[in-house]
Amino acid sequence: MDSSNPTSSVGQVGELFRERFAELLPVIQKQWPQITQDTLTSTRGSFDEVVLLISDQTGRTATVIQEQLLGFLEVASDQGRRLGDSLQPLEEQLEQLLDDLNANLRPKIEQPVRERPLLALGLAAGVGLLAGLLLSGRRR
Fold it and tell me: Based on the structure, what is the number of domains in the chain?
């Protein structure tokens, strides 16, 4: 949120606010408990409408409300970035495990299927039939 160039970032702030509105809603309600969730939701996440709504119901200036909401938005963005950064190593580890599984397990499965395709087809059909019977039995 670079406030040095407000004209270029106004649209971006509004868009980012709308994207993060659902996660900001509890924070906004905690700060201004007199404003109902339904009233806030009716703004559909429009930054300007939320500012006007809060300003009208609290008597505070729109500028003060904007600054507070921008602070909330910045905190939410930072938390999202940190969460994404912390998930990156886990994602890489999962990709490596899937690659290893694919490299090790695939040959063990493909060889018997290629040697006895009819047996593999029969087993697959039997498993499918059994699963279908079990699932249809639960519905009764």
Answer: 2
